[in-house]
Write a structure and sequence with these properties.
This protein has 11 helices and 13 strands. The protein is α+β, with helices and mostly antiparallel strands.
């Protein structure tokens, strides 16, 4: 947007708010107008489309804290000044001379100590005045103003959504509601990780002057599952087994995500913590397929009958007298 527009247009009036409007009040007013004049709600109505562009343009400036501050400063400083063509023989009529003469306490031709118009020029002054980054200027994306560079691109929107563990693992299509109350379809890819970002191109804010729309940068949060955990493309599950099953061996059932349980053979003498692998039952994505990792956890009974306690003591007397911590203590001493 050219700076001349900032002198000509009262963006607060366009949005129907006061100059001391809070960000929350501003957002509410903008959303109400956007719903009313959105082209989807007014098909074939050029007046509504023009109004929608006008309120989008206003919100893109005063809805941004930095640009709002600059806009207020320009409006307060300019007092209706115009950037006009130079007079014959030099000088300006109500243009840059008026603006910068007021800023620096003298006429436009008055050079300030430590500043050279030949080296810096008005481009540097405008860059500092409007917060332009190095290399930016009017008509560039870094400056954010429309000018010789053509229409401005709409702003990107940052958003987040939370999906359940199965949706994140298998993938699905969900519907989201945008800030201007549009319903958009979003494809959640299989295997999306917690905190992963998805870019929805062209779904952000509309351009205020007919340019390309911005994007939505969507952060996906994944709810925890009560049984399974992600480990890359693999799924982990803790599987309790009894002491007898671990000692003598057994065939047990292990759950899978969203499918029927699979049978898994526990070898005799399997210790707690051993991980058994079930091929191909992890996360399935176009880039690969993971496995199901079942971690054995020996369950110790919390209550024993008198008879079972006596038999367990007899068992302890019958097995070799070994201390399973001997190796651990020896390594710790070394």
């Amino acid at each position: 947007m050219a700076s001349q527009d900032w002198f000509d247009k009262d963006f607060y009036k366009v949005l129907g708010v006061s100059k001391d409007v809070t960000p929350a009040e501003l957002k509410k007013a903008y959303r109400k107008l956007a719903r009313k004049y959105h082209p989807d709600s007014n098909p074939g109505n050029p007046a509504a489309e023009a109004k929608f562009k006008e309120i989008s343009e206003a919100h893109s400036v005063i809805g941004d804290p930095a640009q709002r501050k600059e806009y207020d400063a320009v409006r307060a400083m300019g007092g209706g000044a115009r950037f006009t063509a130079p007079r014959p023989g030099g000088g300006q009529a109500g243009g840059f001379d008026d603006v910068f003469g007021g800023m620096f306490g003298g006429g436009a031709r008055q050079q300030q100590p430590g500043y050279s118009y030949e080296q810096g020029g008005f481009d540097d002054l405008l860059g500092g005045m409007f917060g332009r980054g190095q290399g930016g200027g009017f008509g560039t994306s870094s400056g954010g103003f429309r000018g010789y560079g053509g229409p401005t691109r709409g702003r990107d929107v940052v958003a987040s959504t939370t999906v359940d563990f199965i949706t994140a693992t298998h993938g699905d299509q969900i519907t989201l509601q945008t800030q201007d109350d549009r319903a958009i379809k979003v494809k959640i890819p299989a295997g999306v990780a917690d905190g992963q970002k998805i870019k929805l191109r062209g779904q952000g804010q509309h351009s205020p002057d007919g340019g390309e729309a911005g994007d939505i940068v969507l952060t996906v949060n994944v709810r925890k599952h009560p049984v399974f955990e992600r480990d890359g493309l693999n799924l982990r599950v803790a599987v309790p087994v009894t002491f007898v099953e671990a000692a003598l061996g057994a065939t047990i059932e292990v759950p899978t995500l969203g499918g029927a349980p699979v049978k898994l053979r526990i070898a005799a003498g399997t210790p707690s913590g051993r991980v058994l692998r079930v091929k191909g039952r992890g996360v399935v994505t176009p880039k690969g397929t993971g496995d199901l990792l079942a971690e054995v956890q020996v369950a110790v009974p919390s209550h024993l009958s008198k008879d079972a306690e006596e038999k367990l003591m007899a068992f302890a007397e019958a097995v070799p007298k070994e201390n399973p911590r001997d190796d651990l203590l020896a390594k710790a001493r070394d």
